[in-house]
């Protein structure tokens, strides 16, 4: 057996997705000496195509390698049958390889053939071990790959890296850890950017544990944070975070053995304090917790007790006027809450019970002090809702049952007082008519519902009040006639029969001026199936027969053709016979063809010999 080695090249992403029914055709198995090689996988494309040994198209996965394979190309295919596995077992095997692929590990492959018929197929893949591939392919990595949180990850998902081995600091008796950004900032290609610098008590940095001071930087070179860790690797002492602008602090905190304990301050970019609070063992301390605008004026005022907001709370506009006031009890808003406009006018008044649920009447006002809406609640469940336009005209009215579900007619009005919509509900489910009108009072639509589903005849009118279409529904599906009318004349132009949303029955089209029938075609299970008739002023102008949407034959001026055939016209007898033979009555069709043939009609004779 041959052993061939491939080296690393460019990194590419891998995409994994396995449909449960991807592999349906069996692959013929042929015994041949497998070819063995060692390589790295660049990526895997799932559900591609390959050619079997019988030269038929197969569904297979395509493996891309980082160099040429023994088959002198950088791709090979694989499928469950080539591995001798079930689709499920094959998919699980490929998925299990993903972390090693992303980490640029080497793999041990076997392939069935390179020069035979069809696509070369991989027959096995194993992650390299020293025993399987040799020590050359098991060299210890010179890097540790990390994500943005400084946690270990695979190479292709890494944002940072640490070079090994770590240098040992004899004075500190710790190993120094320096992290670098993988992608240099634009404009600094080829120049490494330091991401962090600190110390650890483990030579391998396996647990990503820091001891002592840690500094971190943005890609721009600006410092992003400083922190200190105790001998157990927990945050200890002062922690500072910065904006991505030189020396602009974002927040400071104090930690004790990994828990925030002390003052925590958040800053604006201009250096002003946004908020300031105290923590004890990672829990916010009792007392006031003010927030400020960038100019130092008060923005919010509230207090904590036993980890919960407690007592009066205020929010202010930048000019110092109250924006919102409320009261907290054990972290829940209770009692009356008020929201204000910048002018000082009340915008909203709400009420909550001791459980923090809406209870009572909430009122919303315009900036001019006009009542815009009211909502009535009982222990969190809405019982009624009304709203008005600023001119005082009623805008909306909704009724609810005792459980807070819409019940009865929910109505909306235009500003001119005309009714806009009316929808009937029964315990939050549409039941009855859903109607809509135009601003001029003309009806727009009507949809009947039963238990939340369309049931009955729906109607739609144009802006002039003319009926445009009607549709019969049963259990949310079209059942019965669907009719359309001309917007110009008001005459019906189309009627289609439906059964359970599928055309079943006659589809009729009418002249939009005279209302006379133009055509009628039968449908069966959504397909044209049967005889279509088209009409003119003299009656039926043509008939066509269909089978599952396919037109089989057509007969033009069928009444005239039938009369001529009865009068002995051989050409008419042939046309009539051919249509009947193909479409409706083969015996009658044969009889007419025989009559035409007896009169010397060659087309009839030919058709008879073929029938």
From TrEMBL:
Coiled coil: none annotated. It comes from the Bacteria. InterPro entries: MORN_2 (IPR011652), TPR-like_helical_dom_sf (IPR011990). SUPFAM superfamilies: HCP-like, Histone H3 K4-specific methyltransferase SET7/9 N-terminal domain. Pfam families: MORN_2. This is Antitoxin YwqK.
